[in-house]
Design brief:
17 strands, 3 domains, five-stranded mixed beta sheet, homodimer, alpha/beta, Maf protein, six-stranded mixed beta sheet
C-alpha cells in the first residue's frame, strides 16, 4: 500500500476563517488512484510547524501533498521553506515565467509587477508542475524515495494541477485498486440499522471495512476494500454489497454515492417529467441543490422563492384569508403554495416549504424549527410537519433534504399508469 | 500563550467523502477565547494513528480537542481507545444514561437498544460533558497539565458542547485576547494590493500579522494580534487597521469580517428598501446566500428562478423575440429579466443573471463560462458580462458574488435624493 499525507498551510485554516475543501478533493483523487490517505494536517504560516509536519508525515507516508503559501505576498513562505528543506537554490523557471507573463498580458490584462515575476522562481531541486489557472507553479520534490508535491491553496488552481500529479504518481508506484460501495438509507436511525445488519457486519471479512455515515436524518453505509487483482477485488465487494442492499432494502434510497437531489432527478427524468419548487424558509436552497448538478435542466424548470408573504399571495396565489387566519407556516399555506407553483411554473411535480428557521421569529404555538412541507402533483400531494431544533443553516439543510425525500416517496408511491 | 490542536477522527475525512467543517468552527471558538490553534490533524479510525496524533500534538499543545468516533456502532473506536490511553476503566455515567433514555423515549420516540445504552458508559478517569443534542457524551481528560476533550463528530452535537468546553478552558488557563481585524476589497488583485500597502506592511510591528485572503476575485486583508492587556492591544491594532483602511479606501467594500451579501443587505436596509433576484444559471444560489443570514427578511422579498426559458417568458415576461433572436444568455435577456423581477416581485432593486455554467452547453460564440448580469431599479441599471473558466460550482459562486457586487456598486453610485 502507498500511503499519503496532505499538509495544508495557512493561518486562515487555524482561525476558522475558511473551511478546508482542498483536502477533501485531494483525498478523493488519491483514493481513486489507489493511494490511501493516512492523515491530513493543517498548520499555520510558521516555518517550524511546517517543517515538523514535513518531518513527521514523511515518516509514515510515501507521498506528501502540500497546498498553500505559494502566493506572491510576504505571508506566503512555503516556497523558500521547501527550497531550504530540500537544500536547493532559487532559479527562474522559463516555462513558469512565460506563464506568468501570458496570464497578466492576455488573461488578467494587467501590468506584470516585480512581485509576480518572482513567482516564476523555483528551487533547482524540483520538477515544475505548470499552473494553467494561475501564476504560482507547482513543485515536485523527491527525497529518500518519498514524493513531496507543493500546490497553490486556491482550490481552482490546485484542481488544475491534480491530474498531472496523479499521472506522475501512477508512473512512480505500483498501485492497488481501492473500491468503495456506498448506499443511502432513509427512515431508520444509525443504531436500529446496526441491529438490522448485525450478523452481516459480524461475518464481514476483516479486509472489507463497513462505515456508518449519518447525516440529515439519513444514514449512508459504505463498504471499502482494496487489492491488486482488480477483478477479484471488485467481485468480492460487489457480492457483499448486494447482500447489504438486500438487508437494507426496506430503507434503501440509492445504491450509488450520490446526493438525494440527484436520486430525485433521475426518477423524474426517467418518467420524462418536470419539477419546480416554491420556497419560503429554504430561500432557494432546494433549487440551488438541484441546479448545482449538471444536467438538471432536463427536469428542473424553476422556482418561486416567496420569502415575503406578498410573493406568496401575488405570485403563488396563496389566498389572503389563509395567510391571515392560519398564517404562513401552516399546512394550508404549503398546499396552496404547491398548487400555485404547479400552476405558474407549469411543472408535473413541485415541492413547497414554509417554516421558521430561527434564531428568532418563533412563538409558543409555532416555535423556531416549525416547518410545513408539501410535495405532489396537480392531482395529489403529501404534507409533512417538522419540529427542528438545529441552528439556522442546518434547519435549512434538513428541511431541503426532507422535502426532496417527501417528493421521492410521493413519486414512488404513485400508481403506474 | 495557550496552544491547541484539533484532532478529527474518521475514515470519511480521509477519502474525501465529507468536508471537515467542525475544525473551522472549533478553531473560531478557541480563537475568540484567546487560545491559538497550532494545528489540525485528521486521522482515520485506526488506533495507532489516533494514538500517534495524541502523542505528537500533546507535545506542542496544552489543549487537544478531538471529534468523531463516538457513535454507537463498531467502527467508532475513540472511546475505548481514550479509556486505554488514559488508563481508565469503563463505568456507566448516570446523567448520560438518563439523557440516552430521555432522548429515545421523548425525542426520537423509538425503543432504546442495548447499543444505545452502551453510549452512557465512559472511562472513570474523565469528566462528562453532557450532550443535549444526541446520545454520545463528551469527555474531558486531564494529564500532565494537558487537557484532552473528546466530542461527537456530528456538527450539531459538537456545537452544543463547545460552550461548556470553552467555559471550562477559561477557568483553567489565564488567556490573552486575540484580535482579528478584517477588511474586504474589490476591484484589485492580490499583488497590486500588495504594492499599494507595501510601506505599511514593511513598517508593521512583528507582533501584528497581516494576511491576504483572495477569493472570488476579491481580496480580504486581515490583521491579527494578541495580548494580555485588552485595552492596549485593542488600541494598537485599531490604529493600524485605520491606516490600512485609508490606504485601501478606493477598493474597500467592508471593514468587518462579513460576507458580501450581508454588506449589500445592510446598504439596502439602511435605505429602507427591498430587493429580489431573477436567477437562471445561478439557480437560486444568490437567494440562498442572502436568506442564509438571519434578518434578511427585512429587505429580501423573493426570487424567480427561471431555469427554463419558459419561466423567463411566462413569469418574468421576457419577450419571445428576445429569447429566439439574441437567446437566453444575452444582455437584452438579463435586462428584460430584471424588469420582470422588479415588476412581479415589487421590489426596489433586483439582480438578474443568465449564463452557461458548464461543463457543457457552450458554443463557439458563447462558450461555457459566458454570463450576463444586470442589477438596478426601475429607472436605471448596470449590466456586466463575465467569461469564467472554472468548474460548474465555482462558476455559480463567482457569478453570485459578482452580481451582488454589481448591485452594491449600482446602489452606491445612485444620486442622493
Amino acid at each position: 500500500m502507498v500511503n499519503a499525507s496532505i499538509i495544508t498551510i495557512g493561518d486562515e485554516l487555524l482561525i476558522g476563517q475558511v473551511i478546508d475543501t482542498n483536502s477533501a478533493y485531494i483525498a478523493q483523487e488519491l483514493n481513486k488512484a489507489g493511494i490511501t490517505v493516512k492523515r491530513r494536517v493543517a498548520v499555520g504560516d510558521v516555518p517550524n510547524d511546517i517543517q515538523k509536519a514535513l518531518d513527521e508525515d514523511s515518516k509514515h507516508s510515501e507521498v506528501i501533498l502540500i497546498t498553500g503559501g505559494l502566493g506572491p505576498t510576504s505571508d506566503d513562505i512555503t516556497k523558500p521553506l521547501l527550497c531550504k528543506y530540500f537544500n536547493g537554490r532559487m532559479i527562474v523557471n522559463n516555462d513558469a515565467l512565460k506563464n506568468v507573463i501570458y496570464l497578466f498580458e492576455k488573461v488578467f490584462k494587467k501590468p506584470v509587477t516585480e512581485v509576480n515575476l518572482k513567482q516564476a522562481e523555483v528551487p533547482d531541486v524540483c520538477t515544475v508542475i505548470q499552473n494553467k489557472r494561475g501564476s504560482a507553479p507547482g513543485m515536485w520534490f523527491e527525497k529518500d524515495g518519498k514524493i513531496f508535491v507543493s500546490m497553490p491553496g486556491v482550490p481552482n488552481e490546485m484542481k488544475g494541477m491534480m491530474e498531472e500529479v496523479i499521472e506522475k504518481l501512477k508512473n512512480k508506484f505500483e498501485l492497488p485498486v481501492i473500491i468503495h460501495k456506498t448506499l443511502l438509507t432513509a427512515g431508520i436511525g444509525e443504531s436500529m440499522l446496526a441491529e438490522v445488519i448485525k450478523d452481516f457486519e459480524a461475518a464481514l471479512p476483516s479486509h472489507i471495512k463497513l462505515a456508518y455515515l449519518p447525516n440529515y436524518g439519513m444514514v449512508r453505509l459504505r463498504l471499502t476494500t482494496s487489492g491488486y487483482d482488480k477483478t477479484a477485488t471488485e467481485k468480492e465487494i460487489t457480492s457483499q454489497f448486494e447482500t447489504l442492499k438486500m438487508l437494507a432494502k426496506e430503507y434503501l434510497v440509492t445504491d450509488e454515492d450520490e446526493p438525494l437531489e440527484k436520486v430525485v432527478g433521475k426518477i423524474i427524468s426517467a418518467k420524462n417529467k418536470t419539477m419546480g419548487t416554491a420556497e419560503s424558509c429554504t430561500g432557494g436552497y432546494i433549487a440551488h441543490l438541484i441546479t448545482s448538478h449538471h444536467g438538471s435542466s432536463t427536469y428542473f424548470k424553476g422556482s418561486v422563492v416567496s420569502y415575503d408573504d406578498e410573493i406568496k399571495k401575488n405570485v403563488l396565489n396563496v389566498s389572503m384569508q389563509t395567510l391571515q387566519t392560519v398564517v404562513a407556516v401552516s399546512e394550508e399555506t404549503v398546499k396552496e403554495m404547491l398548487k400555485g407553483a404547479l400552476n405558474i411554473l407549469k411543472t408535473d411535480y413541485a415541492i413547497a416549504v414554509s417554516g421558521i428557521m430561527g434564531p428568532d421569529g418563533g412563538s409558543t404555538e409555532k416555535p423556531v424549527g416549525t416547518v410545513w412541507i408539501a410535495a405532489g402533483n396537480e392531482n395529489n400531494h403529501q404534507t409533512l410537519k417538522l419540529n427542528l431544533r438545529f441552528d439556522r443553516m442546518r434547519n435549512i439543510q434538513v428541511t431541503a433534504i426532507t422535502a426532496l425525500n417527501l417528493l421521492r416517496k410521493f413519486i414512488l408511491s404513485e400508481p403506474f399508469v
